[in-house]
Amino acid sequence: MRQVLAAAKFSFRGFWKNPRVVLTFLLGFVLSYLLSTRIMVVIEAYHTPVQAVEPFLWTFGDSTAILLSSLLLLLLFSDLPGLTPVSPYYLIRMTRKKWLAGELFYVAAATLLYTGFMLLSTVLLCMKNSYVGDIWSETAAMLAYSKLGQNLSVPSTVKVMESMPPYLCMVQVAALIFLYSLCLSFVILAGNLIFKGNKGMIAGLLFSGFGFLLDPQTIGTILGLESYEMYKVNVLAGWVSPLSHAVYARHNFGYDRLPTVRQSLLVFGGLLLFLVLISLKALKRYPFTFLGEKE
Questions:
Q1: Do 204 and 184 contact (CB within 8 A), yes or no?
Q2: Structurally, how many domains does the chain consist of?
Q3: Fewer Cβ neighbours under 10 Å: the N or C end of the chain?
Q4: Residue 290 lies in a domain
Q5: Triad 229, 155, 188: Cα angle to 5°
Q6: From CA 65, how far away is CA 19, in angstroms rounded?
Q7: Domain that residue 126 falls in
Q8: How far apart are CA 3 and CA 218, in angstroms?
Q9: Is residue 196 situated within a structural domain?
Q10: Cα gap 55→126, rounded to integer Å
Q11: Model pLDDT for residues 64-97, shown as the tens digit of each residue
């Protein structure tokens, strides 16, 4: 474990000096601001406060916002696996599996840091009119119990508010987004190991495109389905699409046959295990090249 942590720690050296990292987090903040403007309009118009984490729940409560935020990880992890002049030192002194475990630990830690940054960004953007009490705000009630939320495309629904308090809801939403983003990051890593070079970005785009095409609204538009025909599409997409598993509002709260949050967490866990096994198998055939020579 000490060797794994040492390899992961080395991957973080110069992390904040890397232009790709700085650009990713800057674009993430800009995205949070643009998506949060829908909530800011309501706050300013009705002069009602919000609970501290509610902007995060609404900003990243639909598939489009989650997809856009996760796509920035393509830029952050485009160079995986991180091969530097010091990499031969680690590969000589530890097995490939331990080195890969260090890379996986680095990817997980960086993804968690990115998810936490997006949460913090939405909190800071609306902190002037927010409070920390663990109770839903009047703004949330207006958005959920009227057509205002639907008109502004804010995913605040009654079933979400009735299920649990804000902080517990935030933990579940953040966990779903983190695991989806982590799956995308591991897809990029596995793609780079299997196809060499930076082909993992293509694999990441295909993974994201698969979730987008399986979005119920996208399927309904393509097939020209009526509203009464969308129930089976919603249920099918809710189970098959990784992106739908990351959307908190598309889960079973006792009203339908959609997956529960716990089932989605298990699905992501199984997908991550599969990606790790694929990466381990691909690593055995990966041609490490340093100074024009193969390991």
A1: yes
A2: 1
A3: N
A4: no
A5: 85
A6: 24
A7: 2-285
A8: 46
A9: yes
A10: 7
A11: 888 889 888 888 887 776 656 566 666 667 777 8
Residue from 70, 103, 117 nearest 242 by CA:
70
Task: Fill in the amino acid letter for 77.
Answer: F
Is the CB of residue 78 less than 8 Å from the CB of residue 201? yes
Q: Is the dihedral of CA 137, 138, 139, 142 positive or negative?
A: positive
What dihedral do alpha carbons 59, 63, 68, 72 form, nearest 10°? 100
Over the stretch 211-238, which tens digit does the pLDDT of each residue have?
888 877 777 777 776 766 777 788 888 8
Token pair 């936490």 is found at 116
Q: Phi/psi of residue 163, each to 5°?
A: -80, -40
The answer to whether residue 291 is domain-embedded is no
Residues 6+ apart with CB under 8 A from 240: 214
Residue 99 contacts by C-beta under 8 Å, 6 or more apart in sequence? 7, 87, 90, 91
Evaluate whether 157 touches 249 at the Cβ level (below 8 Å). Answer: yes
Provide the pairing of β-strand 293-294 with 50-51: unpaired
292 lies in some domain:
no
pTM of the model: 0.86
CB 134 within 8 A of CB 165: yes
